[in-house]
Amino acid sequence: MSNQPLAERMRPHTLDQYIGQKHLVGEGSIIRRMIDSGRVSSFILWGPPGVGKTTLARIIANTTKSSFHTLSAVTSGVKDVREVIDRCRKESGGMFSAGRPILFIDEIHRFSKSQQDSLLGAVEDGTVTLIGATTENPSFEVIRPLLSRAQVYVLKPLDENDLGELLRQTLERDEVISRRDVRVEETAALFRYAGGDARKLLNIIDLLEQSTAHGEPIVINDRTVTERLQQNPQAYDKNGEMHYDIISAFIKSVRGSDPDAAVYWLARMIAGGEDPEFIARRLVILAAEDIGLANPNALLLANATFDAIMKIGMPEGRIPLAECTIYLATSAKSNSAYMAINNALAETSASGDLPVPLHIRNAPTSLMKELGYGTNYKYAHDYPGNFVRQQFLPDKLQGHRFWHPCDNQAENVLARRQYDRWQAPDGDSDK
Fold it and tell me: Residue 312 belongs to what domain range?
């Protein structure tokens, strides 16, 4: 038994041993009530690795005395799904099964549409209780008909209290660790490296035990943990939910003019191995979308940052990324250009292909000139101030405004100039 990994030896078998997720399994919570009643509905467990998704599914099966079947989305096809469902159908209502068979699908987000479709009938008619587990947002990866038949429950990373309780139980219950002289002096590094993942915490303790000679005390402190691990693993999946959460936090911090938060999320992305070109592209978009006309230099700097990343790469690329991030975060903000093009696109979709006014059409041939193309067009540079009032929008959109300047110093100047040109009572060509 002692040759099993610590994480496997400490796997809970009852709800009383299960740590964390009190909002789901604590007294009076939704899953606890289902278990106590013996009537478990289909659901999907969504959460990061190491928070107890598979363990919880097994505990539910054991507690309700239901047969337990597992499928891996990585190795199972439609044929495998149908075979398991057939077995569950034969078992359903059997004398040795108190509850409906439970079909547990790990990484259900990896199931193809056809695989998910093959589950629908069995879930709908009650042949199986489906419990899915996923680290990805189910709303993106799970088909709508299946989502409508299975409630989604979110599992949270273990907090420090949960990790502390897991450490305490490990020291008391594990057949190997409990026999060793373990001295817990500090837990900050241990909990930080665990990152809310129970499996990581247990693996670290396992490593400390295996790397400490018998007869010597196992010392748990920040220095020992850091030395033995030799690295700080980052909880960052470039293709997963964490990726989208952190880039969202980064974008919103820049937009919200918080340079400290922005550079922190930048650091999280860099430490997690995010593609620096991806970050640089986001900075270019931010400069145009959120700063825009309030500070047109922002777009120039963002473009220069992208060029610098292409030229120098990492790790030095972190410096121009940080410079641009802080500059954009502290800059005046405007989304008027972003909104203007969206407004214009919406109008184009609504009104269709409105004709170009004759006087601003090109007239390269004599026939076009005879038809009035270009007639009465006024060349702006022939007038004082290089401006003259005339119609540029289609007839049906005369007076329509797409650009609405934001309230900042740069756009206030632009807005005043446009007012003087187009709206002021004395707004003649010399304005």
Answer: 241-330
